[in-house]
Amino acid sequence: MARALRLAEKGAYTTKPNPMVGCVIAHGEEIVGEGWHVRAGEPHAEVHALRAAGDRARGATAYVTLEPCAHTGRTGPCSDALIEAGVARVVAAMRDPFPQVDGAGFAKLQAAGIAVESGLMETQARALNRGYLARLERGRPWLRVKLATSLDGRSALASGESKWISGEASRLDVQRWRARCGAIVTGAGTVLADDPSLTVRLGDDTAFVAPLRVVLDPGLATVARGRVREGDAPTLYLHAPDAKPPRDFSAQHAAVPVREGRIDLEAVLKLLAERGVNEIQLEAGATLAGAFLAQGLVDEVLLYIAPVLLGENARPLFDGLGIEAMTHKLQLDVIDVRRLGEDTRVLLQPRRQ
Ligand code: AOF
Ligand code: ZN
């Protein structure tokens, strides 16, 4: 299963909106076939592994990181393929919450006399597909906030400018996190201050599916400008219901509820989940980052700490948290720490009360 999980992760940049899935077919210690889901619309992991195994799938055990599907989507049901190949036993890491599967894959296999077990390395399998699971189980994507900070906890100058705080290794690392996500979300303020392109630039020919670039812009103040509409990735503007895009507007746009000039963030997340976004990377300023955090909508903080000082006039990481007493402090758990050149990368998760 550990091997199957590693195979699954090879699809991290390309399977969206589908989950990453890996499959290993074995007789005891001997692996006879393996595969992973590469791209939505293409064969599932089991099909690749069964093809590789050929006749040797008969009587074998299939280790799969997700329940084999029972439905005919863009490909035929994997449970049928496993049955036809004569597999004797299927060990899954977890059940697939996808409504058309959700136990039906296991039931099909069992009805055909195949021994089925589920739950092996489930924690790791759930962590791998945290975005897919967030979308299906709670109706909103997994949300990661990416921030670059100075040693004194500042994210931008007073002007809002926040470019080039972190070093080159960190900036390349950010590209890999971007490649994983289904949408990169930013705010109008960041478009005006930094003019980011929000594209994925991995520096090599690694395949990826370009994330949707989303600009939260209640009044559509930035549509006439910005690199966010250039390059090879779609862009979606989310605006107030009464804002009207210019007549010759070519980018995607949609209205979301706005209260007192502030976009309803939960509505944004619901809309993006409905569009198949599993994982969001928020790359915005302190106002938007603070609003998501204060509303409990942040799942993960990706923080690059650079050995620079920006001084007391610079902007904080998060605005509007409204913390007055120690008892109100927000506690996060450190998931991972590593050095990237001169910078330190810390991955954290807000602790759920
Ligand atoms: C599996 N093995 O490798 C994957 C599965 O659009 P489709 O036909 O590719 O179906 C997508 C759904 O199939 C997805 O939401 C999930 O339930 C399942 N993904 N299942 O047996 C795989 N990728
Ligand atoms: Zn399948």
UniProtKB/TrEMBL annotation:
<dbReference type="GO" id="GO:0008703">
    <property type="term" value="F:5-amino-6-(5-phosphoribosylamino)uracil reductase activity"/>
</dbReference>
<dbReference type="Pfam" id="PF01872">
    <property type="entry name" value="RibD_C"/>
</dbReference>
<dbReference type="InterPro" id="IPR011549">
    <property type="entry name" value="RibD_C"/>
</dbReference>
<keyword id="KW-0378">Hydrolase</keyword>
<dbReference type="InterPro" id="IPR024072">
    <property type="entry name" value="DHFR-like_dom_sf"/>
</dbReference>
<comment type="pathway">
    <text>Cofactor biosynthesis; riboflavin biosynthesis; 5-amino-6-(D-ribitylamino)uracil from GTP: step 3/4.</text>
</comment>
<dbReference type="InterPro" id="IPR050765">
    <property type="entry name" value="Riboflavin_Biosynth_HTPR"/>
</dbReference>
<dbReference type="InterPro" id="IPR016192">
    <property type="entry name" value="APOBEC/CMP_deaminase_Zn-bd"/>
</dbReference>
<keyword id="KW-0560">Oxidoreductase</keyword>
<dbReference type="InterPro" id="IPR016193">
    <property type="entry name" value="Cytidine_deaminase-like"/>
</dbReference>
<protein>
    <recommendedName>
        <fullName>Riboflavin biosynthesis protein RibD</fullName>
        <ecNumber>3.5.4.26</ecNumber>
        <ecNumber>1.1.1.193</ecNumber>
    </recommendedName>
</protein>
<comment type="similarity">
    <text>In the C-terminal section; belongs to the HTP reductase family.</text>
</comment>
<dbReference type="Pfam" id="PF00383">
    <property type="entry name" value="dCMP_cyt_deam_1"/>
</dbReference>
<dbReference type="InterPro" id="IPR004794">
    <property type="entry name" value="Eubact_RibD"/>
</dbReference>
<keyword id="KW-0862">Zinc</keyword>
<keyword id="KW-0511">Multifunctional enzyme</keyword>
<dbReference type="InterPro" id="IPR002125">
    <property type="entry name" value="CMP_dCMP_dom"/>
</dbReference>
<comment type="function">
    <text>Converts 2,5-diamino-6-(ribosylamino)-4(3h)-pyrimidinone 5'-phosphate into 5-amino-6-(ribosylamino)-2,4(1h,3h)-pyrimidinedione 5'-phosphate.</text>
</comment>
<keyword id="KW-0521">NADP</keyword>
<comment type="pathway">
    <text>Cofactor biosynthesis; riboflavin biosynthesis; 5-amino-6-(D-ribitylamino)uracil from GTP: step 2/4.</text>
</comment>
<dbReference type="InterPro" id="IPR002734">
    <property type="entry name" value="RibDG_C"/>
</dbReference>
<comment type="similarity">
    <text>In the N-terminal section; belongs to the cytidine and deoxycytidylate deaminase family.</text>
</comment>
<keyword id="KW-0686">Riboflavin biosynthesis</keyword>
<dbReference type="GO" id="GO:0008835">
    <property type="term" value="F:diaminohydroxyphosphoribosylaminopyrimidine deaminase activity"/>
</dbReference>
<feature type="domain" description="CMP/dCMP-type deaminase">
    <location>
        <begin position="1"/>
        <end position="117"/>
    </location>
</feature>
<keyword id="KW-0479">Metal-binding</keyword>
